[in-house]
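Standup notes
- DV: blocked on the single-chain target, sequence here:
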Amino acid sequence: MPTPKKKRKKKRRGHYIRGTYHSPFAGPCKYRSGWELKIMVHLDAHPEVETWSYESVVIEYISNVRCMKVRKYYPDFLVRYKDGTSELIEVKPKRKLEQPTVRKKAQAARAWCEERGMTYRMVTETELKVMGLL
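- DV (later): unblocked, structure below
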């Protein structure tokens, strides 16, 4: 008697809000979550923001130390403020912050920002609530 095949688990797609946001600062930007959309609207309305861009920075990081596999990380937002400061912002659910990949990307982004005199910030649902966006 043949053994039954295991059913593959289907990836859930479409459970995030996706679309294109038209910003006066950044032009048309595709977003992959409702939280990213809320940040985009917030950045456009924020009086201290000079300009912002979506996934415009590429940071290389080592994902596997044994084989030295280099991957690319695209942080969500690069924000420049009117006072001359800049920061990278990554929007992530709090439950994902301890994942090894997320930690490696954050470590690489902090080092990249430090070299350029910038800051790196992870925005979770907690920060979105404090900002009044959720």
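- Follow-up: The domain at 19-130 is CATH 3.40.1350.10 (Trna Endonuclease; Chain: A, domain 1).
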